[in-house]
Predict the 3D structure of the following.
Amino acid sequence: MRKPSPALVIFLGYIIISAFGGLILYLPISHNGDLSFLDALFTSTSALCVTGLIVVDTPTKYTLFGKTVISLLILVGGLGYMTLTAFILSATKTKGSLYARKLVVETLGTGKLGGVLSFASNIVVYSLIIQALAILPLFLSFIRESNTFDALFNSIFHSISAFNNAGFSNFSNSLMDYSEDPLVNLTIMALIVVGGIGFKVWTDVKEGRLTLHSKIAILTTLILIALPFLFFYTFEEQTRGNILKSLFASITPRTAGFNTVDYSKFSDLSLFLTMTLMFVGGSPGSTAGGIKTVTLALVFLWVINTLRGNRNVVAFKREIPQEVIVRAFQTLVLAVFLIWLWVFTLSISEREILEKVGILRLSFEVISALCTVGLSTGSITTPNVSLSADFSLFGKIMIMSAMMIGRVGYLVFATSLITPRKVNYRFAKGEVVL
């Protein structure tokens, strides 16, 4: 019997884990008061897909046990369950089957089978160390407003959520109460950037050399932080003249989901810029979503090089393989198509909400889900939750599926649906006018 494609196994794996997490969160021990299974499943999916969109208020609805389950789902989703599997195989000195290693390669996007288990093992170890180091500075701030146990738990919870770009917060208004706290802001922003820069970049920095991939990822990341920062600092009313708020607003859409300002009060132009940042997301092989920084850079480089008459794409005096450029365009086209499809479908199914919030804010919610960000302009009926809380059963299922697709990756999702077929012939060329 032929084994299913690695892409399909990964996608189905996320669905199964999400359902299992939903069942646990649905148990009375996990929540306070009434909670529907759909809302529990939505929370589980959002946590596993490190998105952060919520339909119930996390700090008040879930118990300590429930919040612990959410943080564990974030850990599994951020690193990738196949990465954790590889860590276990490596720790037990087990190589695993060739098929299992292919699953890990598909998850990490490394493209190489050699040494993939040790690479995955290093990712788990380094990421846990980084998250542990961030607990202390967060604790020093949180202890001012709460007791020792709550401050410690909140520090651990937010460190996990920030590093894994999840955006879940144990405070009802996210981090708005800490918008002027340098320690919280700088720690959370550092975790977001480090978690979203990509595991391969970590390896290059550790080894003291930057490959072409790392150079592109780092440069694009810096540009996508600096330029939006200048915009928010200069033009957006809520962040104008405030360095911390402006910097946080430029970093959190890629793709963490925390907020220190009220996005329901953002200008349309600021929302549009934030949507653009959410669409791009973090770097490949990271905890972040979106089309990825390197994809954007390669598309931009291709346009510049071809306009100059160069058939080959060159960056930092290195030629980029044509198949990599093709994958970048595949990712871009798939992402745009999926966003259009989801916005169009939800505009029909959630017509009453569309009339109240407009197409821009509905699109904001869709991009936030498909790019696993978690930012929202907020519910129009319930405080401290996402606009998704107002959606119908069908609408919530659409958002959950969007988060799932965004986490596994657009190409992985498409590959899981399409059976590869080799064609050994070519047709005659035809003329097409653009």
Remarks:
- The mean pLDDT is 89.
- The CA atoms of residues 212 and 316 lie 7 Å apart.
- The chain has one domain: 6-414.
- DSSP finds 19 helices and two strands in the chain.
